[in-house]
UniProtKB/TrEMBL annotation:
Keywords linked to the UniProt accession: Aminotransferase, Pyridoxal phosphate, Transferase
Assigned protein family: Belongs to the class-I pyridoxal-phosphate-dependent aminotransferase family.
Protein name: Aminotransferase class I/classII large domain-containing protein
PANTHER family xrefs: AMINOTRANSFERASE, AROMATIC AMINO ACID AMINOTRANSFERASE, HYPOTHETICAL (EUROFUNG)
Pfam families: Aminotran_1_2
InterPro entries: Aminotransferase_I/II_large (IPR004839), Class-I_PLP-dep_aminotransf (IPR050859), PyrdxlP-dep_Trfase (IPR015424), PyrdxlP-dep_Trfase_major (IPR015421)
Domain of life: Eukaryota
GO molecular function terms noted in the UniProt entry: pyridoxal phosphate binding; transaminase activity
Domain Aminotransferase class I/classII large: 158-415
GO biological process: alpha-amino acid metabolic process
Cofactor(s) in the UniProt record: pyridoxal 5'-phosphate
Organism: Serendipita vermifera MAFF 305830
Length: 547
């Protein structure tokens, strides 16, 4: 469908939510910058474009004949390319020489020009300057996806496209936070999210977590006991949370816990940013290789019901800003995603885009719209997501299989922060079956990452030199350097601390490391685990010898 410049977000709001409450006014949360932001004069003029009989010579729009693109064409994989069970073939885990030929898909083609009044996409329109809310057909698509998957509990929610969750989060930071404000984050949090806010002088307030996610009682304790004077800054008004496939820990927050967290945020007037790019990679508990069986093929309805609900399901006030992205489900280079939030917040986020990114790239919008609206359709996209989940479940299983084969393991029922999970404790094979456990982890239940702990307890303090930092002055940092020497790059825990100045765990006692299983072959995962074992053996041997 050709984009209609005068279309408003309200035009794509569904009518079947009218019996639900409306969003509350949260304008008191806006930053001074956001309050001062006015609509773009240039974008405001675009609402007049397309008016019958209007001669437009005011826009400064490049003429479409000067676009070098005459069409946009691509071969598209079938939506059912991947098996929807983890027992199916995962070509990307195979060595390159063994990868089968890709499935033959449909060829799509988008011309430059389409007839006047046509609903088809045309590059003359989609590659032109436009409103920040994007292609009209794409607006309708993301709204429909939010209704279908997330089911907001209020009637007047808005959806708004953005250029990926990194930029989406940056907009939220500038819209809601003033210099010197504070931000609630998980104990271990996505490092780029933290570093987006730090240049504003924002203070991080880390909330303790367990293997099931952010702890509601800990959140309440922080807010109940808050004292501006003792803390040195005001109580937080914003929570950043990554609830599914949490980066870096890999846990999944249940709907029940989300509801608890939401009610606390209502009580203390906190806005929740739900950053959820791994939502459809809900892999479930790890099952050891010898206990696995072929699971039955799921229907689309069964797949959707198996997903933990979003915070939006419990949001009756419009205080959740959910960010979704096509980066993990289609491709990160598209730089395309969307917000689902209250209309007042959406309007402020749109105003910021008008004078920064303007709108997501026309090529990306065109490709995604042609794929999901005109080729696969939503049923096809759901089938693709089923296959995607199966692919990453198999990848998770392949990595956990590899690491469990490289060490001697004992498995125990978790206690304390690990209650309800199986904890794997590993010792070096060269130390025999009763060797000291040097490494432990809980298999991830979602996403792309496994969070590994290395136990340095009992080692002498690390040897440091003047100027040592987190990367060189702790056992965590020095063991990371040892792995690099062995040829293995994984990410150290200090990068992900919610409060870097107040680490939750002494990095000289326990080191944390994020391992990605998203893009390696099975062989490379096995090799990585061997390098990890080799680095552990040499580091503990040499560190002990120095004592």
């Amino acid at each position: 469908m050709a984009n209609s410049p005068e279309a408003s977000q309200g035009d794509v709001q569904s009518q079947d939510h009218q019996d639900l409450p409306k969003a509350v006014d949260l304008s008191h949360h806006l930053s001074q910058l956001s309050k001062a932001r006015k609509p773009s004069y240039m974008k405001q003029m675009m609402k007049h474009y397309g008016r019958p009989g209007l001669l437009v010579l005011g826009g400064g729009l490049p003429h479409p004949d000067c676009f070098p693109f005459t069409s946009l064409e691509s071969n598209i994989l079938p939506a059912d390319t991947f098996s929807d069970t983890a027992a199916g073939l995962v070509p990307s885990l195979l060595p390159q020489r063994e990868v089968p030929a890709p499935a033959t898909g449909k060829r799509i083609s988008v011309p430059k020009h389409v007839p006047a009044g046509s609903v088809a996409l045309g590059l003359a329109r989609t590659m032109q300057y436009d409103l920040s809310r994007g292609i009209r057909t794409l607006q309708s698509l993301v709204h429909e996806l939010s209704v279908l998957f997330f089911k907001p509990a209020y009637s007047d929610f808005s959806t708004l496209v953005h250029t990926g969750n990194t930029e989406g989060w940056a907009r939220i930071v500038h819209t809601l936070l003033n210099p010197g404000d504070s931000l609630l984050v998980e104990e271990w949090a996505y490092t780029s999210a933290i570093h987006t806010a730090l240049p504003l002088g924002v203070h991080m307030v880390a909330v303790p977590t367990d293997i099931h996610g952010l702890k509601p009682d800990a959140l309440r304790g922080i807010l109940d006991g808050w004292n501006d004077n003792s803390r040195g800054f005001k109580r937080p008004r914003l929570l950043y949370i990554n609830p599914v496939g949490q980066n870096p820990c890999g846990y999944t927050i249940s709907g029940e816990r989300k509801k608890e967290i939401y009610e606390i945020c209502v009580e203390f007037d906190i806005i929740i940013t739900e950053d959820d790019p791994y939502y459809f990679m809900q892999e479930g508990p790890y099952v050891p290789k010898e206990e696995r069986s072929c699971s039955a093929i799921e229907s689309a309805d069964q797949f959707m019901k198996s997903l933990e609900p979003s915070f939006l399901k419990y949001d009756r006030q419009g205080r959740v800003i959910r960010m979704d992205s096509f980066s993990k489900t289609l491709a990160p280079g598209l730089r395309l995603g969307w917000y689902t939030c209250g209309p007042g917040l959406a309007e402020r986020l749109e105003r910021q885009a008008e004078l920064s990114t303007q709108a997501p790239g026309g090529l990306a919008q065109t490709l995604v719209t042609e794929l999901l609206v005109n080729t696969w359709g939503i049923p096809g996209y759901i089938r693709w997501l089923q296959g995607l989940r199966a692919q990453y479940t198999a990848r998770r299983d392949t990595f956990v299989d590899a690491i469990t084969e490289e060490f001697n393991w004992s498995v125990s029922e978790g206690k304390g922060e690990y209650e309800g999970a199986n904890v794997y404790h590993g010792s070096l094979k060269e130390h025999g079956p009763n060797g000291r456990a040097l490494i432990s982890f809980v298999p991830p239940t979602s996403g792309m990452f496994c969070w590994i702990r290395v136990h340095f307890n009992g080692l002498p303090p690390p040897v440091t030199t003047p100027g040592s930092d987190e990367g060189t002055g702790t056992h965590e940092g020095q063991f990371w350097a040892r792995m690099m020497e062995e040829g293995l790059l994984i990410l150290p825990g200090w990068m992900f601390r919610g409060e870097s100045e107040r680490p939750a765990v002494d990095p000289n006692a326990i080191g944390h490391y994020r391992v990605s299983y998203s893009d390696g072959t099975g062989h490379n995962m096995q090799k990585a685990c061997k390098l990890l074992s080799k680095a552990l053996a040499s580091y503990f041997r040499e560190t002990t010898d120095k004592s």
